[in-house]
């Protein structure tokens, strides 16, 4: 029987019992956090002994916690797709020393990872201090040695201006800077002109300690290298490459809208799309950071506005923008598609944009097989993004039926997928209100 796992935005992690050790009196405390630096990995459960401390998504950190100065076993657990129980993939021992800050970095192969430990003295500041502390680190598996620059906006990287050179898995010692605005730039080692990553201008506050690792970008990013700013007291902020704008993919699912030209400015002088018509799905198109209003105007008559919809785009993010409904009640649904590859699974992303069908049932059956005895894979409400459906890789016929019935509305539509593939599907109306069309969205 084929396995399936329905995700609604995030993988559900492992629950476990907690335990307290009987330990002697401590003499102090140290801080510990963990980072998942394995691109393409499932989410990871991070534990001290058997107590869950956090869920590690790639490029993110667990909250920082302070522990008595004893020796502990920290455990990393992964629920791999198709397995019923979490697997313990790493269990490093760590002797916590008073007033030290530890970051456990999961690297390598998720099935048998390594754990690097970055540690430094915990920083204390005078009440009137005007500086912050910065630690720069290298967690990008695809990069070799890098030079890191950290300077005021407008300062170009130049030989001698680097803050240090980092090999994969390493971290620099702490550096102090006056509070203010800075840009982080990464270049290949010894070549200040080969810029691999550059942040936007970011404000750093006094009396704070920041850890900033560099990572490989994944399918959710629009740049090959990214970074994350971790405040050691807790919390992390992604730092996308400022040279790569966010993108939008347009879906035209309003069946009665005439072909339109699409503009992203009030004066209708900046044209994004030409002759965009029902059923069209574009590739990724660059869009400005912040709020943008898209105006759909009739082809040949820009004064005939057919629809306006807005998006608020963050740096480094891919979006889908789906126009739904009919004249007088059109709207736009904006969401971030999950394009992450998951080893061992087929990720199926589905958006139902067929107005004639308030809810549909999805079936995925072996090629050539009927759906008579098949089990429903998902329920698809109209114009709602439900997350991803994870199923075994293979070849399938997809069908849509009326909800709680086996009356076929669309299909069969054939898909063939290997381990780690991501297939995106959109559902459109047809001229027959009793049917719908399953459209396989081209890869971006």
Overall strand count: 36
What is the arithmetic mean of pLDDT?
92
Which spans have pLDDT < 50 for at least 5 consecutive residues?
1-21
Distance between the termini: 32 Å
- Helicity, in percent? under 10%
Summarize the structure.
This protein has 444 residues and is mainly β.
SSE layout and pairings?
Elements: E1 4-6, E2 29-36, E3 44-48, E4 51-56, E5 65-68, E6 71-78, E7 87-90, E8 93-95, E9 100-107, E10 114-121, E11 131-139, E12 146-151, E13 164-166, E14 175-178, E15 180-188, E16 195-198, E17 202-204, E18 209-216, E19 225-231, E20 236-239, E21 247-252, E22 260-263, E23 271-276, E24 285-286, E25 290-298, E26 301-313, E27 318-324, E28 331-335, E29 346-352, E30 359-366, E31 378-381, E32 385-391, E33 394-402, E34 408-417, E35 422-429, E36 436-440
Parallel strand pairs: 2-9, 11-18, 21-27, 29-35
Antiparallel strand pairs: 1-32, 2-5, 3-4, 3-6, 6-7, 6-8, 9-10, 11-14, 12-13, 12-15, 15-16, 15-17, 18-19, 19-20, 21-24, 22-23, 22-25, 25-26, 27-28, 29-32, 30-31, 30-33, 33-34, 35-36
